[in-house]
Amino acid sequence: MTRLAIETWIWYGVTWLVVIARLLSRRLVVGSVKKYQTDDYLMILAMACDAVLIACMNIVSHTSSNLIDPTQAVDLTPDEIDKRRLGSKLILVVEQLQCTVTWLVKCCLLLMYNRLTTNLTYNRAVKAVAVYVIVGFVVMEILYFGVWCRPFNQYWAVPTDNVQCSTATHHLITNATLNISSDIMIIILPMPLFLKSNATAKIKVALCCIYTVGVFTIVSAVLNKYYSFTDPFGADWTVWYIRESSTALIAANLPLTWPLVRQVMHISTSNQSSSYTPRASRGFDHFDFSVPTITTNGNSSLPTLGPSNSEIPLRERVRTDLEGTSGDRARK
């Protein structure tokens, strides 16, 4: 077994452990698997795509493609041409699976942010980033399938008539720009609430660790493109593709494992107020206990990536808090 195979399947195993913990935590919160929300199912789809990605990547690492080093004289036999065509098709599959996994993770995070920030001005920023992510993905795919390499079958032609069909330089630049910029936006989104909070040191350390994993995802994205440009005939880019997708999956799921961790570790939340009774819960989603609740200074409590002490509908709780604050100001 190669070093790539060992590392990639270790990553996949660790990722599944985190995802399973997330799914168990979500079941604790919503009460039934049937009540899973959209991002839960998208995460399962992302894991299925990641499994195929890892399997194909391990094949690609041992297979030649239509990316031929111009400094080497190559006299290809019909059998070698067929193998290179297969390798080229697998690279296309790997690239699309990588994009799919990466953007599914972004969607899952943004759906979670959207649930936690409904009825807040902050929610507008979440939706703006969501539009950027969706439009960016659509534009990237249109360029990949309809612009950069024409006709499309040149992606696996040996030899190819268009260097973009073998090197995919324009696509890699587009992907890096849209992927890294949206990752940075998604990481920055929760920071204002986090910085304004009076969370305990332990909670802040835990969140910082999750942020660190997210930053490593961006570093992996930069490095896989760096090696794709500087050493396209080497294999270094392959392992960084897997590191990027794996750390992205881990970072997106870690916050949602808190309910299970709290139950297993017998962590008490008795310091949180439980006097709130929602006036009307119909039509509101229940808070999904992402990570420990972070309460901001002042009279009102802004939701962040964290659980409440009971399954209080978050949107109703926030609306009531905001209405109460507005009433106090009016009386003054």
Structural class comes to: mainly alpha
* Unreliable stretches: 269-327
**CATH fold call:** Rhopdopsin 7-helix transmembrane proteins
Classified by CATH, the class is Mainly Alpha
Structural commentary:
Belongs to the SAT4 family. Pfam families: Fung_rhodopsin. It is a multi-pass membrane protein. Residues 22-262 form the Rhodopsin domain. By secondary structure, this protein is mostly helical. It has helices spanning 3-30, 38-60, 78-116, 122-146, 163-167, 169-188, 191-196, 201-230, 236-253, 258-265, 314-331. It has one domain (3-264): Up-down Bundle (Rhopdopsin 7-helix transmembrane proteins). The radius of gyration is 23 Å and the shape is elongated. Helix content is 66%, strand content 0%.
Keywords:
mainly alpha; 11 helices; 332 residues
Short structural summary:
The protein has one domain: Rhopdopsin 7-helix transmembrane proteins. Helix content is 66%, strand content 0%. The protein is built from eleven helices and no strands.
Topology summary:
Elements: H1 3-30, H2 38-60, H3 78-116, H4 122-146, H5 163-167, H6 169-188, H7 191-196, H8 201-230, H9 236-253, H10 258-265, H11 314-331
Helix pairs in contact: 1-2, 1-9, 1-10, 2-3, 2-9, 3-4, 3-6, 3-9, 4-6, 6-8, 8-9
